[in-house]
Amino acid sequence: MKILAAVCNSEQNDYLLDLAKEAIDVQLVIVHSYEQMILKLGGIYERIIIHCELFTEAYPWDWMTEIKLRQPHSKVTIALSLKTYDSIYNDVIMRLAADYEFTIIPLGLTEKEIMERFTDGLLANSTIPIARNGSLIAVKSASPKDGATTVAVSTALSLAKTTNLSIGLLDLNLKSPDIKDNFNIAQLGKSLFSLRPKISTNSIQSADIMEHCYTYKGYKNLHLLLGSHRRDTAGDLTMDQTKNLLDAAKRTFDIVIADVHTFPDNAATVCAIKHADERWLVTQPSYTSFKISWADWYECFWRHCGLDKTDFSLIVNRSNTNHAIKVNGIGSELGMKIEGVITNVAGGVGIKAVNEGIPLLLAEHNGLFTKEINLIAAQLLGRMGTKLTNAKPADKLQTSRLSKMIAMMLAKFE
Q1: pLDDT band at 361, cuts 50/70/90?
Q2: Are residues 112 and 184 in the same domain?
Q3: Within the chain, what is the greatest distance between any pair of CA atoms?
Q4: Which residues have C-beta within 8 Å of that of residue 55, sequence separation ≥ 6?
Q5: Known Gene3D superfamilies for this protein (predicted)?
Q6: Secondary structure class of 14 (helix, strand, coil)
Q7: In a designed cystine with 142, which of 7, 96, 231, 294 is the match (CB 3.0 to 4.6 A)?
Q8: How large a percentage of the chain has pLDDT more than 70?
Q9: 234: number of Cβ within 10 Å
Q10: In whole angstroms, what is the distance from residue 345 CA to residue 339 CA?
Q11: Domain of 162: which CATH number?
Q12: Strand intervals (E) in 82-149
């Protein structure tokens, strides 16, 4: 394997050289400037790793596009830099990375953690698990079949594809566990049900979770903890047991996405929603979903859990510009921020994907779906970086030329 590494100091350089000595069949090419990297792009590389601190004077659409054009088949990993002078640059990098299918290492990590992410799964001696403090995203539907599972599955896939973060996808929709069907996985004794002995004794560890997870095809950083066909046991899981499971999952993964039940009639749903870092409400543009089902459940239950409407973010699924109900009107009526809008996928592609066990994100002819999910995933990464670094958006860009160029790039994702 030939690797091109653009690093910014001698410590990073020595870290890579030490690992390369113990790796098998790895040829490492290290550069220390933007100009050196451009010159070395004439070679053929299976992997390219880049620290953005080297490129603070270069526009991301220049060097990222150059890499994509000259190394279209390389797997590219980019670490964001706190020294980028304008926070919108990192936003542009993340959006372009989603478009170019580059992986992103977010802000807020130590230098050692960044190097571990660079080499995670790349060089042969990375065997010690990284201690994590992951973020929990709970995804629920306003009404049954509004698409929460599709959003959860697709966002997890997008994150796994465009970053090297460790992603845990948990099927906590115990009364309707559909994630296994989305991936067409024939369960072989591993599920949340088989993990119950560890959960019930409050002795669950990261190794236990990993042992009971599945991976999907080439997505080695995506880990699936599936639900059980024993739907009658949904009520057996207690609040304390669910909290212990979620805490262990957050220690195991960088991002935990929990698909939960529409109705708060089981501890898994209630606990995941109460303790989530973000709560995504998925609704169709239908009055029966957001105006009746969700409104009733919020008033009779969720507000009594101490949750305000603003504690939820809205994702409008199966949107149609010809629909009488407008997206902005849904957000205004519910008093929620709209986190994403997903256009209806026409032609029965969605139903076909479910029936064939192919995640919609990976299905052919899925319209704008992939682009819109990638944007939701990129925005999530942006919020994680902002939370970790307390970075504030720039009030304005410094030149009109730069403003126009960035506006042009961001328009691609609107």
Answers
A1: very high
A2: no
A3: 63
A4: 34, 63
A5: P-loop containing nucleotide triphosphate hydrolases
A6: helix
A7: 294
A8: 86
A9: 21
A10: 19
A11: 3.40.50.300
A12: 103-105, 135-141
**Of the residues 113, 128, 143, the one at which a domain ends:** 128
On average, the pLDDT of the chain sits at 84
DSSP 130: P
> In the structure encoding, which two tokens stand for residue 223, read together?
């880990």
Is residue 353 within 8 Å of residue 363, measured between CB atoms? Answer: yes
What is the SS3 assignment for 158?
Answer: helix
Q: Which residues sit opposite 153 in a β-bridge?
A: none
In a domain, 159, yes or no: yes
Measured CA distances, 57 to 52, 54, 395 (Å): 10, 8, 20
Q: CA-to-CA distance for 404 and 196, rounded, in angstroms?
A: 55
Report pLDDT digits (tens) over 236-253.
Answer: 899 999 999 999 999 999
Q: Is residue 207 part of a domain?
A: yes
- Among 94-103, 259-268, 304-313, which stretch is predicted with the lowest mean pLDDT? 94-103
- pTM higher than 0.70, yes or no? no
Average pLDDT over residues 407-411: 48
Q: Measured between alpha carbons, how far is 303 from 287 in angstroms, rounded to an integer?
A: 20
Higher pLDDT pick, 399 / 68: 68
The residues pairing with 146 across neighbouring beta strands, listed in sequence order, are: none
Is residue 398 in a domain?
no
Q: Which two tokens stand for residue 83?
A: 């020294």
The verdict on residue 380 lying in a domain is no
